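Quick log. Single chain, no ligands specified.
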Amino acid sequence: MSVIQRHMFIGALLSLLLLFLFTVAYLSVYPIASFSLLFEKDLMDLPFGLIVPIMTIILGGVAGGISGFYVSKELQYVADTLQELDKGRTIHNKNSTVLNGVFEQISKLQNRINEQVRLAQKLANEKAEDHEKRVQQVVSEERNRLARELHDSVSQQLFAASMLMSSITETREEADDLETKHLKMVEETIHQSQLEMRALLLHLRPAALKDRSLEEGIKELLNELSQKVPIDVSWKLETLELDKGVEDHLFRILQECVSNTLRHAKASTLDVLLIRREGRTILRIVDDGIGFKMDEKKVTSYGLQNMHERALEIGGVLKLVSLPQKGTRLEVSVPHVGGERND
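-> predicted structure:
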């Protein structure tokens, strides 16, 4: 039974109850000789004793229907308001004498949610600054050492092996024998290993934001990526004023996502978007790689779990969509609560 039907039913019952009470009170003061007299006189071809209850039920039902329609609209507005609140959008109070207390509570709930998001971002900001001071130097030195050793040893050896294989295959006469095919396969393997090594060196190189903005850090990372790895990189970045902690977490999420793309996706294009829409900062990374099934264990891998936790720490939401042979799309949405950037 809908709200309107329920109100119509209640209105009809109340009107009958009032008719009964009024009738009892009237007859107790002005008694009649017989109740049959009420049914002997007609009104609009119906007995007077019957038409009065019918009209009472109709009027009560109409009044209840009008009341139910009004209450139904109010309840629907409350439902829509809660849905908007769940999406993180700003709620505007509605002047309502019936549900004024409800909207006051919704407004308080919205303020509490905004305060929690602001606090989460503040804590993330403080945590990022403190963690960066204590760990950045040690991590940077270790990553530099590993990158230098790999570049000086393994990377140089791969380069030498690649040059040697290229020389061997060029000096051989054109032939379609099995040995030539094997040599070409070895050459392709070495070339692929070089590409993976470049991606690994790019990932190992410490790339903290330091005194740069998020936009500047992303541009530097993607420029270096496009120079060292054969992948078509494009980006659209808006200049945004964000807290240091939010910038740091978004940049780390981008690094982790780019690393996953280079290692596993086998993508030929990578597109990065950083914008602000409807009071939310959005970071979106899309590749055209091999993708994966969402129900596989990859969705709960350490890298994705780490990105998900970083998004939660700044009050954001991380969404991941991937299809086999259709690529992967990762999007982080963070609400903007009006804080000033704190460099």
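The mean pLDDT is 78.
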